[in-house]
Amino acid sequence: MTATEIKPIRTKRDHEAALKEIERLWGAKAKTPEGDRLDVLATLVDAYEAEHYPMDPPDPIEAMKFRMAQLGLTRRDLVSREHYNYFVGISITAADRCRLFQPLVRVSLFADIRAQHTR
Questions:
Q1: Residue 17 CA: distances (Å) to CA of 7, 20, 50, 104
Q2: What is the per-residue pLDDT for 105?
Q3: What is the DSSP string of 75-109?
Q4: Fewest CB within a 10 Å sphere: which of 22, 40, 93, 103?
Q5: CB of 80 within 8 A of CB of 48?
Q6: Cβ neighbours of residue 59 under 8 Å, at least 6 residues apart?
Q7: pLDDT for 22
Q8: Could you write out the DSSP letters of every residue in 42-81?
Q9: Are 68 and 88 a contacting pair, CB within 8 Å?
């Protein structure tokens, strides 16, 4: 792919050439010819990869568990408004929070109840 030529990505060879060009342009300033070229190539690569390498969306509960692990949070932390807002980044009511995290919270509550009864 030459410096002036941008074309649709139809083959693996086109895809590899576009990735090399993106790597070369990485870090280009926005609103410059190089930055615009990077934006267009990234859009083309994204479309090609979405068609040729589709990914199923993650399971919502597994995605939340993964993010919690990244943040070092436990299920109990979801009860705290401070941790919950940090985790999700939005402010919602306690009722909505319980409904949203019911599968996680239910497991946590049962574990807490069991732990209290075995003491």
A1: 11, 5, 17, 45
A2: 47
A3: GGGGGSHHHHHHHHSS---HHHHHHHTHHHHHHHH
A4: 93
A5: no
A6: none
A7: 94
A8: HHHHHHHHHHHS--PPPPHHHHHHHHHHHHT--GGGGGSH
A9: no
Residue 64: how many CB atoms within 10 A of its CB?
A: 20
* Site of tokens 């509960």: 61
pLDDT-flagged residues of the chain (< 50):
105, 107-110
pLDDT in tens, 8-20: 999 999 999 999 9
- What one-letter code names the amino acid at 73? L
Closest CA to 17 of 5, 27, 29: 5
Note the pLDDT of residue 101.
60
CA-to-CA distance for 33 and 109, rounded, in angstroms?
56
Q: Which residue has the tokens 């705290």?
A: 80
For residue 25, count other CB atoms closer than 10 A to its CB. Answer: 19
Q: Give the C-alpha distances (Å, rounded to integers) separating 3 from 6, 30, 35, 48.
A: 8, 17, 13, 20
